[in-house]
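Researcher: Sequence of uroporphyrinogen-III C-methyltransferase follows. Predict its structure.
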Amino acid sequence: MLPAAEPPATEARGHIALVGAGPGARDLLTLRAAQRLREADVIFYDRLVDPALLHLARTGARRVYVGKEVGRNAWPQAHIDRLIVAEARKGRRVVRLKSGDPSVFGRAAEEIAAARAAGIEPEIVPGITAASAAAAAIRVPLTERGETDCFAVTTGLCRPGDPAPDRSLLARPGTALAIYMGIGKAAEIEAAMLAAGAPAECPVDIVSCVSTGRERHASATLASLSETLRREALPGPAILFLRHPKSLSGRRAGGASRAA
Ligand code: SAH
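Model: Prediction complete. Tokens:
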């Protein structure tokens, strides 16, 4: 047997687990996540979580949809934090079920802080993040020996009012980028990466609704990214998987030089 994952013993005060639901397909859930769902008294889940996963929970478990949309919260985060803590304080086993991996663009930091402020050390159950599932779906590895020495995860969306992420470092040869929440910002990302010196021919795969029945995929280059998205009308959620392989820059050094 593999080592069993025992939830921390905090029964008197309840238990809070931030659980990764994976990218969508039910069988991409971890065994540990399934176990936490079976044990839960109450489950708070988001928009991107497949409600079919909730069948794993006991009949009597409460299922609460907290409906977080990308870039828009149907339930303010602070409200979710308060509810999770309030339920745990009643001695309940609370699961906060989040799409993919809870630690990747999942606002886990706020929920961890809220649990700790209530004297509860939360458990984190990792999940398969959308980038891993997207790479698997199109059979293009996230890294490639000799071609990529950096795999970075970035976002198209930041907090309202925050500056866009500095993309200049991400344009360097040898970098593979998984861009979350990027389709609405594709034109901006394309322009910023080109301006930062990434070659126009960098391959970009757009993988939408990975591991669900609605999965779609389109291939583009950096220069044709926004046009491809317009033409193919790929729906969200989607991962933009942009690579700047070293060999592309090698060719570039020997060929036309592009403004950096
Ligand atoms: N914690 C999640 C990410 C949440 S942010 C994870 O680790 O995967 C939401 C973004 O994740 C979406 O905008 C999209 O970029 C990506 N995403 C989530 N599920 C996806 C899916 N099934 N297919 C493609 N992208 C997905």
